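User: Run a structure prediction on this.
Assistant: Running it now.
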Amino acid sequence: MLSERQFSHLQEMDISLWRQRKVKEQAQGLTINQQELVNDATFTDILIALSLSQSEINIADNSIDLGLFNWVFHQQQEITFEQSTLRTPLIDELKQSASLKKQLWQCLWQHNLCQ
């Protein structure tokens, strides 16, 4: 089910029908501790930048469905956005590295994901 925000974005892009793509390598993502994640200030800041609330996202064992794209944590020290999937190190690793935080914000802005 789409949120009003997601539906609005799709209408702006002249997309009348939308079906979520399956994320390749989803099974290879690191397991997410949902309770720790939703209470993390860095994660909350990222959601704010994406104009999302916690009620608009779905957290699974190894990925976060943000509506128009998915977020998967991996062990590499790099941040990528391909095939509607953002891949980053775990939030704790992002918080400890200024260069990873910089890469994350640049990636989000480069792909017009932030409002």
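Residues 30-110 form one domain.
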